[in-house]
Design a protein that fits this description.
The chain is an alpha/beta fold. It is 31% helix and 20% strand. The longest helix is centred in the last third of the chain and has 15 residues. The chain binds flavin-adenine dinucleotide.
Length: 432
């Protein structure tokens, strides 16, 4: 019997567990550990609450968690409650699927002013992440700026634009819904350092913007190259650019505007005690397609600035780390130690991109560790004994179901599901 520890219960962790189960059948026990008693990582805390069909991917992970060879062990932080070396003693292989939860910094003066926040914080706030429940983003001013040209930037801008009514059927947390309902923000400027041909925004996310109840996207036609230049683009990007071009024809008759400001590089954030504006430099593309400053600057008013320019992984003691992720070669970090998902590749791709990652690492493990193990690793029983000796109380999958059922049962009529937003609330539901 082999014992495997997958650290992190987001998509990468679940796809890896699924692949290991397929590879080893009943010859392996797979424990999926997470620092929280609630699984699914960014499916719960990242993916937008108004994209419920995407969040439904967790149903597939439920099946994995419920299968005979897999256990979910929550409320355990690897690197704090237990070390990777401890896990390597107890398990045949350890797979780090810890994601990339920290916002990359812009690295500009004024970035630390109140009112400048990262998308992980803002997204965590509206999705009920316990670390960001008290964020209280500034929604009293009329202008917000979102920095970034990807789907996370679009998520942030869209959430700021929607009406209360448009959140029906979502699982946005109550505190965010109420705050957004009273928001004074009327203009959301999306700053992209390069042009429409360089966006990492996908058609589905862009397409939604043309149909918002109270907000309309705004583009500057002069930012686009001649239409023939769209021809050689990869089909998905071409579709995105076509959608962006189409925004120029929309009637500007709604209360809120989502302004796409391309070729715009933030130089500094300014304000008296809190952010009031961003100073931006106009850019152009150089020969390599990178953004080059032109020296022309202008200011964009902003009482709230959200940066959405990427994420980095949390280091774990004694695991080699560089450039915001674990140092690895095709997922292998060291003997019997692997990384998958964002902790392996960095924060790119969709939920589905994590699947081949997990399957690839499971294949490598199966190739190096035959099903008939030496039998001297203890796996979960040893882990639980060690945790108990350290006063750590792990939770299991039934505990998660109890939390989930309580959350669903807490929904007020006509309101989204009331997610618990504090670690102690989860533990309280479990009577701990
Ligand atoms: C705002 C946002 C919106 C997104 N929207 C979409 C979308 O609409 N569609 C789409 O396809 N993709 C979307 N993505 C991308 C998708 O969420 C990622 O591809 C995916 O979640 C990465 O999976 P992961 O398992 O590597 O990391 P995560 O999902 O982050 O999972 C990591 C897990 O590890 C746990 N963990 C971390 N450190 C430790 C530790 N030390 N000990 C124990 N556990 C730990 C965390 O609690 C978490 O559960 C979005 C991403 C973001 C940020």
């Amino acid at each position: 019997m082999r014992h495997f520890a997958v650290v992190g219960s987001g998509p990468a962790g679940f796809y890896t567990a699924e692949a290991l189960e397929k590879a080893y059948g009943d010859q392996a026990r797979i424990d999926i550990l997470d620092r929280y008693p609630v699984p699914y990582g960014l499916i719960r805390f990242g993916v937008a609450p108004d994209h419920q069909s995407l969040k439904a991917v967790s149903k597939r992970y439920d099946k994995v968690a419920e299968s005979a060879g897999v256990d979910f062990i929550g409320n355990v932080t690897v690197g704090a409650d237990i070390s990777v070396a401890d896990l390597l003693d107890l398990y045949d292989a350890v797979i780090l699927a810890t994601g990339a939860p920290h916002d990359r910094k812009l690295g500009i003066p004024g970035e630390d002013l109140p009112g400048v926040i990262g998308s992980a914080e803002f997204v965590g706030w509206y999705n009920g992440h316990p670390e960001f429940a008290d964020l209280d983003p500034f929604l009293d001013g009329t202008h917000a700026v979102v920095v970034g040209a990807g789907n996370v930037a679009l998520d942030c801008a869209r959430i700021l634009s929607k009406t209360r009514h448009e959140f029906e059927g979502s699982d946005i947390v109550g505190h965010a819904l109420d705050a957004l309902d009273h928001s004074a923000i009327r203009t959301i400027t999306i700053l992209g350092r390069r042009g429409p041909h360089q966006v990492a925004m996908t058609p589905k996310e862009l397409g939604e913007l043309g149909h918002l109840e109270d907000a309309v996207p705004v583009v500057e036609p002069a930012d686009f190259p001649p239409i023939e230049a769209d021809e050689p683009l990869e089909p998905g990007l071409r579709k995105s650019v076509t959608l962006l071009r189409g925004f120029a024809d929309l009637p500007q008759d709604k209360a809120k505007h989502m302004v796409f400001d391309f070729f715009a590089k933030p130089l500094r954030a300014e304000g008296d005690g809190k952010v009031e504006r961003i100073i931006v430099e106009r850019t152009e593309l150089d020969e390599k397609g990178s953004a080059r400053g032109t020296g022309d600057t202008y200011e964009v008013p902003a009482s709230l600035v959200i940066t959405a320019i990427g994420y980095s992984t949390s280091p774990i003691p004694d695991v080699p780390f560089e450039g915001g992720k674990f140092v690895n070669e095709n997922g292998r970090i060291a003997d019997r130690l692997y990384a998958v998902g964002w902790a392996r590749r960095g924060p790119t791709g969709t939920i589905g991109t994590n699947r081949p990652d997990g399957y690839d690492v499971a294949e490598q493990i199966a190739a190096s560790l035959p099903a008939q193990g030496s039998g001297d690793r203890e796996g979960a029983s040893g882990l639980k004994r060690l945790l108990e000796s350290r006063g750590v109380m792990p939770t299991d999958y039934d505990d998660w179901r109890k939390i989930e059922e309580t959350e669903v049962g807490n929904a007020r009529p006509g309101s989204p599901r009331e997610k618990f937003v504090r670690h102690q609330d989860w533990l309280q539901v479990l009577g701990r």
